[in-house]
Amino acid sequence: xxxxxxxxxxxxxxxxxxxxxxxxxxxxxxxxxxxxxxxxxxxxxxxxxxxxxxxxxxxxxxxxxxxxxxxxxxxxxxxxxxxxxxxxxxxxxxxxxxxxxxxxxxxxxxxxxxxxxxxxxxxxxxxxxxxxxxxxxxxxxxxxxxxxxxxxxxxxxxxxxxxxxxxxxxxxxxxxxxxxxxxxxxxxxxxxxxxxxxxxxxxxxxxxxxxxxxxxxxxxxxxxxxxxxxxxxxxxxxxxxxxxxxxxxxx
Length: 251
Fold this sequence. Notes:
Blueprint (H helix, E strand, L loop, with lengths): L4 E7 L2 E7 L4 H12 L8 E5 L3 E4 L21 E2 L14 E4 L12 E2 L3 E4 L6 H26 L1 H9 L3 H21 L8 H9 L12 E7 L1 H8 L15 E6 L1
Antiparallel strand pairs: 1-2, 1-10, 2-9, 3-4, 4-8, 5-7, 6-8, 6-9
């Protein structure tokens, strides 16, 4: 498949055309299979948050009574994460896979059926600089946590023997190693010029990058995406008037 797959999502508010990336083959093939099997027909955009995203693909949303809490339904399996970062990121119009939280899903595996389309907001340079600092902080936390885990036996032994001096040495060593590794990997916390440009012009949701798999993007119908994100919703972010996916067709 040299050419990227195009998909038309027909909704009650209009059509959205998306392309699926070839660099995320598991997500691409799974989306095509579910579309061809009719899994999406009759499902709702059940979670809509203005200036953030519109979410769909919960099989339980078919014929769901008004006001029913939705978002927990799925098709019985997950997909391994396929991050193609920083090439594909959460700019406006990005098609991404929903997933459960890190606490229960440290591998960041994707929901097989639930997806969202990014709307987001436009950012200023200063806001993006602040986000880079936060990303750097999260990177350091992750490195330190990993090093702690790797040295857990040594830490436990020092703790049980009450050797505070040894504990202090271990801590200082791990802090030093964290700083060294973070320095080597600092580019991971930086936004590329392409990301910066997109987030400053069309907008998006930068803090979701490298956390959720982006596997496609809207090529036509962003006005329909905007129409959906502007509908009135209840406290659970479910639209008061159903926005229904009538069909998903490979074109």
